[in-house]
Amino acid sequence: MANTPTPHNGARPGEIAKTVLMPGDPLRAQFIAENFLEDVKCFNTVRNMLGYTGTYNGKPVSVMGGGMGMPSIGIYAYELYHFYDVDNIIRIGSAGGIADQIRVHDIVIGMGASTNSNYAAQYQLPGTFAPIADFGMLRKAVEAAEKNGIKAVVGNILSSDTFYDDNQNAASLWKKMNILAVEMEAAALYMNAARAGKKALCILTISDHLFTGESLSAEDRQTTFTDMMKIALEIAE
């Protein structure tokens, strides 16, 4: 395509698969490529936002970092959908638990992504848009989790623009609406997918809980994050 490479992605046309796994941390993208994919080739090093393409069980799969926050993933996802002909993006990341039924180690799949962001204002809609996952991908993720004996909770998550919120009551207010967990990217990804007519899903690992104070150790995070990666790789098309 004429728009590739972009200012943020050095890949050439054809170097990125139809499905991209997108952790926030580019080093986690490198970890997935080195430990789960075969015949791996690096397609991007611009801004150190590493991207790789390889195969998983014979299927072409790409993995690329998306950065922190909606502006960051918004740029990368937009370019993947519009300039690199990507059809599916699966965000895999960490989240803070909010709901009482959520515990550390849990896998949370974001059916919807509420947000305190103004990201949707760009679409000039005459109302409030509800960012949601692709149902087909969501169903496959739930089935993959069940098949592998992995606990997965499905529901509404919060994509927040703020990590350090000046409103100390914000989490409690979201909790009243049965928000399961908070992260910082899914709403923008879901909106980009909707606008592009493409598919998106967010799979999260609960690394800590905002109300109980629970938190995973570095070793535990590596193990549970691996479960999340397996689900995402299994449903890659």
UniProtKB/TrEMBL annotation:
The active site is at residue 208. A purine D-ribonucleoside binds at residues 8, 183-185, 207-208. Catalyzes the reversible phosphorolytic breakdown of the N-glycosidic bond in the beta-(deoxy)ribonucleoside molecules, with the formation of the corresponding free purine bases and pentose-1-phosphate. Phosphate binds at residues 24, 28, 47, 91-94. It catalyses: a purine D-ribonucleoside + phosphate = a purine nucleobase + alpha-D-ribose 1-phosphate; uridine + phosphate = alpha-D-ribose 1-phosphate + uracil; a purine 2'-deoxy-D-ribonucleoside + phosphate = a purine nucleobase + 2-deoxy-alpha-D-ribose 1-phosphate. The record marks 221 as: Important for catalytic activity. Belongs to the PNP/UDP phosphorylase family. Residues 19-230 form the Nucleoside phosphorylase domain. InterPro entries: DeoD-type, Nucleoside_phosphorylase_CS, Nucleoside_phosphorylase_d, Nucleoside_phosphorylase_sf. GO terms for biological process: purine nucleoside metabolic process; uridine catabolic process. Pfam families: PNP_UDP_1. Homohexamer; trimer of homodimers. This is Purine nucleoside phosphorylase DeoD-type. Its EC number is 2.4.2.1. Keywords: Glycosyltransferase, Transferase. GO terms for cellular component: cytosol. GO terms for molecular function: purine-nucleoside phosphorylase activity; uridine phosphorylase activity. CDD domains: PNP_EcPNPI-like (cd09006). It comes from Anaerobium acetethylicum.
